[in-house]
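Narrative of accomplishments. A recurring question from our advisory board has been how the design workflow behaves on a single, concrete structure rather than in aggregate. To address it, we present the structure tokens for one chain from the evaluation set, followed by the sequence designed for it. No filtering or post-editing was applied between the two.
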């Protein structure tokens, strides 16, 4: 029974963290009584510590195998494939694992890995290796698994929207080879570039409609003192709808997130000559979930002007989406790659990928439009329900309505007066 309890507890802790699971739930799942759990482990902390001991033993075995084979990466990969819940639990608690007897619970195997590698960068290498392996296992299929809840949860998992079903996945289909190539890029590098998505006529129209709407330059170094930003332009122009709901973006988002993912923000960014490089950052860092983990958001940046190495092209650090909780070093930041692409192309990247606007050393501005999206259960950065008029939404496509929040994350997140929010658009005169 002890082993069964540890196995089941590891699985539940891995999915919900120590604070998200009760002793009673573990007991029910294992077919034991609460008293039985207490008898073996004394407390929830005691049970958690027993789970860590088992992970520690599995990791020790993986390190031993690595010493024998002289190949840390494949030993770690084998460990990750065999013990998926260990990996998940480690990812959950990597930064929060309690110290026991004055030492970090997993310090043994990690120290041995560091010794094995040797050299000054050994710790960084081990953390990155753990990050890559952990990320791969967690992001299996690139979607976060729905939380496993003990007992009958059919109501909570069902989609109760009857009249207004999600339109996710119903957009014009895209070339399956393109989609597969982009997904492979995203999994490996954290970003992908799709060239020549919009033609010159559309780009000219975007410029003509957005130019008069800019009001003021950035208010801080992050926005860029020489960068003009146009926030929430949806009420003032329809020319950006085609970017926010582009079939390529939606096809990739369909792969990454559950239906009813949301638009998180839409911005036009015009970087003037002389602007310094923006601070390197990730876009989903405001969701306080420890990394490595699958992304909670993703973004497109469409080049309205050609992106060159000199004019402020977005810089990205390939592979940084798999990192744990760390900042890029100065060397890594300096080595970030400018997303050089012709005007009309689209850079698509994960919310976990380190990136920034580049320095504009040219003599012309660099205009781009960025649309950011988030998982359907995350709070979007901009409250489009407040910033875009109902009349405007009523005359938008169903995709845009869904993206702006007129949608439900099953069973009922996003309801209004207990009803689907799209009912609010019934009878509204299109604006
Ligand atoms: O303008 C760019 O290329 C990137 C901008 C960006 O990442 C941001 O403002 O968050």
């Amino acid at each position: 029974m002890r082993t069964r309890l540890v196995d089941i507890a590891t699985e539940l802790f891995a999915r919900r963290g120590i604070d998200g699971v009760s002793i009673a739930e573990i007991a029910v799942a294992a077919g034991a009584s609460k008293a039985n759990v207490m008898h073996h482990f004394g407390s929830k902390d005691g049970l958690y510590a027993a789970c860590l001991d088992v992970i520690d033993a599995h990791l020790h075995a993986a390190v031993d195998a690595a010493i024998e084979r002289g190949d840390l990466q494949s030993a770690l990969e084998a460990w990750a494939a065999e013990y998926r819940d260990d990996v998940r639990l480690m990812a959950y608690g990597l930064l929060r694992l309690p110290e026991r007897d004055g030492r970090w619970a997993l310090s043994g195997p990690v120290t041995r890995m560091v010794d094995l590698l040797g050299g000054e960068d050994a710790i960084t290498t081990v953390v990155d290796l753990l990050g890559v392996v952990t990320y791969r296992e967690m992001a299996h299929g690139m979607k976060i698994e729905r939380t496993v809840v003990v007992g009958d949860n059919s109501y909570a998992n069902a989609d109760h929207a009857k009249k207004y079903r999600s339109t996710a996945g119903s957009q014009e289909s895209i070339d399956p080879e393109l989609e597969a190539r982009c997904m492979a890029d995203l999994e490996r590098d954290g970003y992908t570039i799709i060239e020549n998505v919009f033609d010159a006529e559309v780009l000219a129209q975007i410029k003509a409609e957005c130019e008069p709407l800019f009001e003021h330059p950035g208010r801080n170094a992050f926005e860029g003192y020489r960068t003009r930003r146009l926030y929430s332009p949806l009420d003032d122009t329809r020319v950006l709808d085609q970017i926010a709901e582009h079939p390529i973006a939606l096809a990739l988002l369909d792969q990454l997130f559950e239906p009813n993912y949301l638009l998180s923000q839409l911005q036009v960014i015009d970087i003037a000559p002389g602007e310094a490089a923006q601070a390197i950052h990730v876009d989903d860092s405001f969701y306080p979930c420890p990394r490595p983990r699958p992304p909670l958001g993703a973004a497109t940046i469409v080049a309205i002007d050609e992106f060159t190495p000199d004019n402020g092209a977005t810089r990205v650090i390939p592979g940084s989406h798999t990192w744990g909780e760390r900042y890029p070093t100065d060397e890594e930041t300096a080595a970030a790659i400018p997303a050089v692409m012709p005007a009309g192309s689209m850079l698509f990247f994960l919310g976990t990928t380190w990136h920034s606007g580049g320095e504009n050393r040219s003599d012309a501005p660099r205009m781009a439009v960025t649309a950011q999206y988030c998982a359907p259960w995350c709070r979007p950065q901009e409250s489009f329900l407040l910033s875009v008029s109902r009349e405007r939404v009523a005359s938008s496509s169903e995709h845009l309505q869904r993206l702006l929040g007129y949608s439900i994350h099953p069973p009922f997140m996003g309801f209004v007066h207990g009803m689907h929010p799209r009912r609010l658009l019934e009878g509204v005169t299109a604006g």
